[in-house]
Amino acid sequence: MQIGLRLRELREAKDLSQGDIEKTTGLLRCYVSRVENGHTVPSVETLEKWARALEMPLYKVMYDGTEPPKPMKLPTGTEEGLWGNSPPESKELSQLLRYLAKMDPKDRTVLLGFARKLARNAA
After folding, report:
1. Does the pLDDT at position 34 exceed 90?
2. Domain-located, residue 117
């Protein structure tokens, strides 16, 4: 999806001009034009302003479906099979974090690189 084209479509569907977006958001009209023509990519904060000007939630600016998107299922930390969930593993994990925090950054980088290499070999 090209966000600039999407913003232009939404603006035109609401029968708003670039000047209307400028007045509502405080963004310069030349900036609005640059975004809509794909010369500039807006920040999330700018997209929030634009969504308020269009009187719609931010997700609708980036989502083209009719229904709201379903939220992703994030790990809760209580899922079976994840290392660190059982009490003994949790204790080991917190101990590991304490030791890593005390390490010199260069030593930590070497250690984590070594662990990454071991994990690749195990897979």
Report:
1. yes
2. yes
